[in-house]
Design a protein that fits this description.
The complex is a heterodimer of chains A (304) and B (268).
Chain A: H1 47-72, H2 83-92, H3 94-128, H4 130-145, H5 148-158, H6 162-187, H7 191-199, H8 204-242, H9 251-260, H10 264-293
Helix pairs in contact in A: 2-10, 3-4, 3-6, 3-8, 3-9, 4-6, 5-6, 5-8, 6-8, 8-9, 8-10, 9-10
Chain B: E1 10-18, E2 24-33, E3 38-42, H1 49-57, E4 64-69, E5 72-73, H2 74-78, E6 85-88, H3 100-110, H4 115-128, H5 144-156, E7 162-166, H6 174-191, E8 194-199, H7 202-208, E9 211-216, E10 221-227, H8 242-258, H9 263-267
Parallel strand pairs in B: 3-8, 3-9, 6-7, 7-8
Antiparallel strand pairs in B: 1-2, 1-4, 4-5, 9-10
Helix pairs in contact in B: 3-4, 3-5, 4-5, 7-8
Classes of the chains: A mainly alpha (304), B alpha/beta (268).
Chain lengths: 304, 268
């Protein structure tokens, strides 16, 4: 090639230079200390550390207050157990609670996976033609607005296998955000890029794989975050409605039983496990989002 | 590419565009563009210059009339293996999730060109626009001017005979735009391209074109065609020469006369 264009101008900052470190004197004013090197920023001033430390601090304060109130007011454990008692119950009853956690996790994960696969497939069908979407979308909405508590007894009667019936209930709860978000994402493509694909005689499959799916990813992951929580809620609610005992019972059943027996510490311990599961699922989804979109999508780029 | 048969690259035969709501985007126009020409469609917003270009590209269908590329209807010409066309949009129109080289390789991937050959041609196209070093970068890491170069590289990678450009440098600052204009002229001469370039800048039109097609709005129509009889290569000196001023003044007057109603818009 004989022609070369002139050297390009410098690239725009992909990584804006870090803001000048704020003066450490605000946090660590001890005059006797030797002056800090400019690069060290006090731990509490680092956004990364703040994100972990601040919620943990709030949690510690709340738990401390709770423990102090329970002890100070001499509340009986069958009304409000102290955090220490709750943790103790968690360990002593771990055999039962751990098994229950596994059952609830199994149902949550199964229904989340089924909801994701089914939801994405339905979205692919929806974006093929407006006609299909117009005809079927109201039923997707119907699915969303019908309370699962009302439908669950029917499903539990119809489907013999207890695990399958619970998975179906939880899937129904988790399905809609995936359908609606993914469909929206598959449609949210740059019209010029779409025209470019058309001009280059791209097939439907090429447009789907190279343009629609990557464009839909940010929306799809938004749907996943909502649905992961909903799958857990669906699993717990379905189990409450089913209310059946037996070998494989989940955390909801433990809560029901603990309620009947006024074993409030165990109820709190089960509750704690459900919450932690939800948080873990959310964190997992946030991590997956970052892994998939971190390099290019505005929602995941550093805002500082 | 070296075919010198006197087949015009583009023939627009009474093509017109009326939108379903009755708005006339373009009155019937006739235009013939020969191979090797650098033609600018110049006019204010709403004069139908982009509409005309998009009809040539096959992105819009004319309401009436016909468009031929190398004597064949647009749709048939687009499937031709020997004569290729490339379109550069007003914005870079890149895939934000894909690297520069993947973006440039897109038309080859869509045409199922073997990977090794495609990669070689991508490297060549990036070399041409001076971005070889940024092959692995994501578009967002590049400046606006560099993103536009990527978009042009994506056009060049199909080795086009005809390059259609819809206000490609409109969003760039003056200095970057001058540079890209000069680089484009260089490319046009060396590659013996036929270029149709849409702009609303009189200066850009005079500097670049061998022929300026002046259009006016409400309704969209062709007002005048002006041949810019100045030799290439054109240097920056040309922009301050009396000839340049002469052409610019002429076009300016013609533009004002054609669009008294919306002259403010025309001058913007």
């Amino acid at each position: 090639m004989s022609i070369t264009w002139n050297a390009p101008v410098a690239p725009r900052d992909a990584d804006p230079a870090p803001a000048p470190a704020p003066s450490p004197a605000v946090i660590a004013p001890a005059p006797s200390q030797p002056p800090r090197p400019a690069a060290t920023v006090p731990l509490l001033r680092q956004p990364r550390a703040q994100r972990v430390l601040l919620p943990v601090l709030v949690g510690l304060v709340l738990i401390g207050a709770w423990q102090a109130l329970v002890v100070g007011m001499e509340l009986p454990p069958y009304l409000v157990p102290s955090p220490a008692l709750m943790m103790k119950t968690l360990f002593t009853d771990w055999a039962t609670l751990g098994m229950a956690l596994l059952v609830t996790l199994k149902i949550t994960v199964l229904s989340f996976v089924v909801a994701t696969v089914v939801g994405v497939l339905i979205s692919f069908v929806f974006v093929q033609s407006r006609l299909i979407e117009t005809a079927l979308f109201p039923y997707a909405v119907l699915l969303q607005v019908t309370p699962i508590v009302a439908v669950a007894p029917l499903i539990i009667i119809w489907v013999k296998d207890p695990t399958a019936s619970l998975v179906i209930c939880a899937t129904l709860v988790a399905l809609f955000p995936i359908i609606s978000n993914t469909t929206l994402g598959l449609r949210s493509i740059d019209p010029d890029l779409q025209a470019y694909f058309k001009m280059n005689r791209a097939t439907r499959l090429q447009t789907l794989v190279r343009l629609r799916i990557p464009s839909a990813l940010p929306y799809f992951f938004g749907g996943l975050r909502i649905s992961s929580g909903l799958a857990l809620i669906g699993a717990v609610v379905a189990e409450f409605v089913a209310g059946t005992g037996g070998a494989a019972t989940g955390l909801a059943y433990q809560i029901l039983m603990a309620g009947y027996q006024l074993n409030i510490p165990r109820m709190f311990a089960a509750l704690l496990l459900i919450s932690l599961t939800g948080v873990a699922l959310f964190a997992l989804m946030a991590w997956a989002t970052k892994a998939a979109l971190g390099s290019w999508h505005a929602s995941e780029l550093s805002q500082d | 590419m070296n075919d010198n048969a006197p087949v015009p690259a583009i023939e627009v035969l009474s093509a017109q565009k009326t939108y379903p709501n009755g708005t006339i985007a373009l009155q019937p126009v006739d235009l013939t563009i020969q191979e090797g020409e650098f033609v600018t469609l110049l006019g204010p917003s709403g004069c139908g210059k982009s509409t005309l270009l998009k009809m040539v590209a096959g992105l819009l269908e004319p309401t009436d009339g016909r468009l031929l590329l190398w004597r064949k209807p647009v749709a048939a010409a687009q499937d031709s293996a020997t004569k290729k066309m490339a379109f550069v949009f007003q914005s870079p129109t890149l895939m934000p999730w894909a690297s520069v080289q993947t973006n440039v390789r897109l038309p080859l991937d869509l045409a199922k060109v073997p990977r090794a050959e495609a990669d070689a041609r991508v490297a060549e196209a990036l070399e041409l626009v001076g971005l070889a070093k940024f092959a692995k970068a994501l578009p967002r890491a590049l400046s606006g001017g560099m993103q536009m170069r990527v978009s042009i590289a994506r056009g060049l990678v199909v080795q086009p005979n005809l390059l259609l450009m819809d206000e490609p440098f409109g969003a760039l600052d003056e200095i970057t735009r001058h540079k890209l204009d000069a680089d484009l002229l260089e490319l046009w001469r060396k590659k013996k391209l036929t270029v149709v370039f849409v702009t609303h800048s009189i200066h850009e039109a005079v500097f670049l074109s061998s022929r300026v097609v002046m259009m006016a709005a409400r309704p969209g129509r062709i007002v005048e065609e002006v041949r810019i009889d100045e030799p290439y290569p054109r240097s920056a000196d040309f922009m301050v020469s009396p000839e340049f001023t002469h052409y610019a003044k002429h076009l300016q007057r013609s533009l004002l006369a054609a669009s008294q109603a919306n002259e403010e818009e025309a001058l913007s």
